[in-house]
Amino acid sequence: MQRIDTIDDIEAGLDALVLADARLVDIRSRAHAVPLRRSQPGFESLASIIVAQQVSTASAASIWARLKTHVAPLTPENYLERGEEAWRLAGLSRPKQSTLVHVSKAVLAGELDLFGLCNHPAEEAITTMTAIKGIGPWTAEVYLLFAAGHPDVFPAGDVALQAAVGHAFGRESRPTAADLRVLAEAWSPWRGVAARLFWAYYAAIRGREATPLL
After folding, report:
1. How far apart are CA 46 and CA 134, in angstroms?
2. 140-150 b/e with 16+ CB inside 10 Å = b?
3. Which of 19, 74, 147, 175 has its CA 20 to 30 A from that of 81?
């Protein structure tokens, strides 16, 4: 597996994508720079993705800053030890509090190796992660994209990606997750770069960041 570790990797993926799908030539030019956006594997990276679920970038950043203040350093042990008062002060919703409890316990029990998963095939890693209560496909896919640098993962359930693809291809309504998964098959084995491209395109046309990484 060729990881996406550098901007050169992004450029190589973009070059391959526009050769495979001519529709992406104009999208690439309109998206301007396509950022790398990598994070270190581990609990903190996954926690940041969980915090970013279903909230604006600004709200996620605010909650994240408070969480790192009230749980410092942010480790599974410290998260569980600080308890509900710290989680509430950080602004975590009940479902996110619960998900991070399950993740913390799984990591400490050796049931979830967030470093080792980065070397597994995408489907296998996603299956392992989604077995943890509260982690859905979107969370697992985003983790593999940004923490593992996986080249061929496309989070089709991401609303911004759906909106970006729908706009780019002139659709009256954004595609469903199922529709987008089918569309994205044409961009394999560079779906991870295609996702970054469409997030960058979304930022260009909407004037606001949509990449789900703090």
Report:
1. 12
2. bbbbbbbbbbb
3. 147
CA atoms within 13 A on the CB side of 86: 18
Over the range 33-59, which residues count as b (16 or more CB within 10 Å of their CB) and which as e?
Answer: ebeebbbebbbbbbbbbbbbbeeeeee
- Running along the chain, 214 residues long, what does each successive block of 10 average in pLDDT? 92 97 96 92 97 89 96 98 97 97 98 96 96 96 96 96 96 94 97 97 88 74
DSSP 74-97: --HHHHHHHHHHHHHHHT--HHHH
Domain 7-38+154-206 classification at class level: mainly alpha
Q: Token digits for 200?
A: 């960058």
Three-state DSSP class for residue 42: coil
User: What residue has token string 């609303």?
Assistant: 159
Q: Which residue has 């950043």 as its token pair? A: 61
How many residues make up the chain in this entry? 214
Tell me, what's the pLDDT at 214?
A: 63
Cβ atoms < 10 Å from Cβ of 135: 22
- The CATH code of the domain at 43-146 is 1.10.340.30
Q: Say how far apart CA 141 and CA 191 lie, in whole Å.
A: 11
Q: DSSP assignment, residue 100?
A: H
The domain ranges of the chain are: 7-38+154-206, 43-146
Cα–Cα distance measured from residue 53 to residue 30, given in angstroms and rounded to the nearest whole number: 27
What tokens were used for 185? 């098959």
